[in-house]
Task: structure prediction
Amino acid sequence: MIQKSKIFTCITIMVLFAFGTFGCARVQYGSPGEVETLTQEFGSTDLQTIAEKMVNSMLLSPVIGADRPVIYVSQIKNKTAEHIDTKSITDKISTAMLKSGKVRFTAASEINKDLLDQLEYQENTGLVDPRTRKKLGRQIGADYMIYGEITSITKKAGRKRDVYYKITFKLADIETGIIEWMDEKEIRKQAQKGILGL
Result:
């Protein structure tokens, strides 16, 4: 009887230990700039390295300068097989570019309907003081447009998997259609599964 009691106690302790180890997640803060390599999928480190590369390159372009051109940001095309939040990439790039003081961005690409609704509200309802009312037809037209795409190639051989990403950005003159700046960033991620497939 004592032997069964000891076995039961040991099993109970092992179960509680397992739940304590595997059942509860430990959450802690990490540095946003820390290299993230949990999986081969597109991650925060990829986003940060792309943004840094594109911003540094674009700021060296002769069209970016003292006259602070107005830029329209187009949706980045995701041509990979995975979900990638391309707006996070353009937001990161736009934020750094704006902080440089060398460019301005039009909000029309993000909130055009909201801007128009607000202008029409001020112009047509009669509820806004005419001295502070903003008028239609005074928005500043963009000089350039940023656009681009992300593509990927995935290869598997046995336990090895290789993912290659290529990110291309372009800056085009809206009036002439001339591409004034273009750059790309390549990222390769490789992984090998364990013998047991883990």
